Amino acid sequence: MLEINELRKRFAGSPGSPVAKIALDGISFTVRPGEMFGFVGANGAGKTTTMRIVMGVLQADSGSVSLRGEPIGPGDRRRFGYMPEERGLYQKMRVGEQIEYFGRLHGMSAAAVKKATDDLLEQLGLTERRNDAVQALSLGNQQRVQLAVALVHDPELLILDEPFSGLDPIAVDALATVLQERCRGGVPVIFSSHQLELVERLCDSVGIVSAGRMVAAGTVAGLRAAEAGELRVVVRDPAPGWADGLPGTVTVDGDRHILRCTGGDDQEILRRAVKAGRVEHFGAEQPSLTDIFKEAVA
């Protein structure tokens, strides 16, 4: 289990901007084995800084990062897989050679790294591009190669900064499938993303960060359930003025009247709707992750 506890980080000001910037202000969260954790927030919220501290690229001013209850050291980080926001591929190297090269840097044998490379090329749909130079690939395919580099040494933990950025739906599905397979094998996965619908679909839990603070965290289902559900009522061809005096707002779509409200007497609303016309829908709708995000960072 990866535990991030009360991380704080301040960057000194510059001559042009002398005011110090607080990047992290007490960030805490936990990622369990086999869990996919979505780290979401606006640009500059603190996601990348947190990931760099976990990887040892930056040092926190205070707070701790531990794995299995022990402080993380260089030996642990060598067993992590990291995909930085700024991609780091050798553009003139061939795809297969690139993946094998990074595997050998992790100490893998020639036979093991070749098998791992073959498997990843197949899983990520890159087998036919094995002998192409990286610079000849589309940005989406370069993204796949970058993920393969992060995975080649069979890491114990995956930390991915915007891995789905700029990918088409087919590439998203290919990468998501590979990550889900790793999770099923017990590997904790952390990834940041601005694609909240994707985070909601893939992640077991999510953390929403704003201005260096964690403003909401938990399972996606738990965060949705914690928010007040909105009642949605759809009545076809109702009598005029049927919703007068009821809470909420009514929109009209052809002969369908749609009432959305929070609060009020739901039984009275149902009685009025049944009396007014044919009720096509009556039920509470939980907010999406996008709705929760907007509310949390407001």
UniProtKB/TrEMBL annotation:
<keyword id="KW-0547">Nucleotide-binding</keyword>
<dbReference type="GO" id="GO:0005524">
    <property type="term" value="F:ATP binding"/>
</dbReference>
<keyword id="KW-0067">ATP-binding</keyword>
<dbReference type="InterPro" id="IPR003593">
    <property type="entry name" value="AAA+_ATPase"/>
</dbReference>
<dbReference type="Pfam" id="PF00005">
    <property type="entry name" value="ABC_tran"/>
</dbReference>
<comment type="similarity">
    <text>Belongs to the ABC transporter superfamily.</text>
</comment>
<dbReference type="InterPro" id="IPR027417">
    <property type="entry name" value="P-loop_NTPase"/>
</dbReference>
<feature type="domain" description="ABC transporter">
    <location>
        <begin position="2"/>
        <end position="236"/>
    </location>
</feature>
<keyword id="KW-0046">Antibiotic resistance</keyword>
<dbReference type="InterPro" id="IPR003439">
    <property type="entry name" value="ABC_transporter-like_ATP-bd"/>
</dbReference>
<dbReference type="GO" id="GO:0046677">
    <property type="term" value="P:response to antibiotic"/>
</dbReference>
<dbReference type="InterPro" id="IPR017871">
    <property type="entry name" value="ABC_transporter-like_CS"/>
</dbReference>
<dbReference type="GO" id="GO:0016887">
    <property type="term" value="F:ATP hydrolysis activity"/>
</dbReference>
<keyword id="KW-0813">Transport</keyword>
<protein>
    <submittedName>
        <fullName>ABC transporter ATP-binding protein</fullName>
    </submittedName>
</protein>
<dbReference type="GO" id="GO:0005886">
    <property type="term" value="C:plasma membrane"/>
</dbReference>
<dbReference type="InterPro" id="IPR050763">
    <property type="entry name" value="ABC_transporter_ATP-binding"/>
</dbReference>
<dbReference type="Pfam" id="PF13732">
    <property type="entry name" value="DrrA1-3_C"/>
</dbReference>
<dbReference type="InterPro" id="IPR025302">
    <property type="entry name" value="DrrA1/2-like_C"/>
</dbReference>
